[in-house]
Amino acid sequence: MNHSLKSQCSVSPGTVIKGKWHGKQYTILRELGFGANGIVYLAKQGNVQVALKMSDNGMSITSEVNVLKSFAKVQGSALGPSLLDVDDWENNKGRISFYSMEYIEGPDLMAYIQQKGKVWTMVLILQLLKDLQLLHDKGWVFGDLKPENLIVTGPPAKIRCIDVGGTTLQGRAIKEFTEFFDRGYWGLGTRKADPSYDLFAVGMILINTAYPNRFNKTSGGVIQLRDAIRKKQELLPLETIILKALQGHYISAGTMREDLLLAISGNDGQRIGTSPEIHRTNSNPARTGPTSNKAKDKPHQKAAQPSTRQSYQKKKKRKKGGWSETIIIFMCMAILYGLYIFIKLL
User: Fold this and answer.
1) Structure pTM?
2) What is the mean pLDDT of each run of 10 residues along the chain (346 residues)?
3) Catalytic pick from 144, 163, 194, 268?
4) Counting Cβ atoms within 10 Å, is residue 239 exposed (0-12), middle (13-18) or buried (19+)?
5) Which of 169, 242, 261, 323 is a Cys-bridge partner for 203, taking CB atoms 3.0 to 4.6 Å apart?
6) Residue 261, SS3?
7) Are 210 and 234 in contact (CB under 8 A)?
8) Which fold has domain 3-102?
9) Half-sphere exposure of residue 22, counting CA atoms within 13 Å on the CB side?
10) Is position 144 annotated as part of the catalytic site?
11) Looking at domain 109-280, which CATH architecture does it have?
């Protein structure tokens, strides 16, 4: 962010911002952060805390507002904050555009994992991929995807994005990026906005969970990143998935999500790291021959038999399955993490 922009948009706590057009008043509480296109403040509007972004670049504000409006149309997604107001503020420095949005409170992704444990990594990444799929279906790419822009709210734990400044229409050049999570920086692709750009960043976020301080680029490329994966025991079960994401082999967030679910449930041989022939064999039960008429008649034989109380009870128990996806994932990751700690202590 250039110094003149930061100086123009810089205000002290207690400053009252009054919108020229809508007349809403906001009292600045503190700065939350700043980037290339403006400063974000925590403010109060009446009794409600909001996040308020100010910029002297009206086009940038308009672009981000359009993104937030698009997010609101993505049913079932809570990726970005809700848009509350858009206006201008006139002061002795001139006219400054701003918008207010929902204030999303909570630790960022890395802080949450450090507090709650790495067993939560998969739960949150699977949530993120589900929301990214919805976003991509609407024609957008998030762009500047990194742990600092991912806040975990709850309970129940829910991942949310707080900075839409890098969100870009598919097909255009990425507007904002952070080097560690940018495939162009690692020499593994262009900065053209497409779903695989975000999925590269998801792969790097998984690596980041094992390297909280990150690391510098040396040789670059997939070889350096593959070596980094193989040095961390907790990343080894996900090596194939991460490498596919880093090399742009995933065309959708949903496909990557399915592979992660298979990996943590222990059925990764069905898709990950197997040939198409093996995948087809696993996805279709083997048959020893044509179905006989006798076999076809069995359902009718069973239907003709009176159901006993014991068989009814068994059917009733079978219907009571239904662990939620989050609980299953959490239990699987808890077991894996426990084994990892046990092995590490040997």
Assistant:
1) 0.76
2) 62 96 97 85 97 90 89 70 94 90 95 95 96 92 95 92 89 95 98 98 98 96 98 96 98 97 73 36 37 41 44 46 58 61 50
3) 144
4) middle
5) 242
6) helix
7) yes
8) Phosphorylase Kinase; domain 1 (3.30.200)
9) 14
10) yes
11) Orthogonal Bundle (1.10)
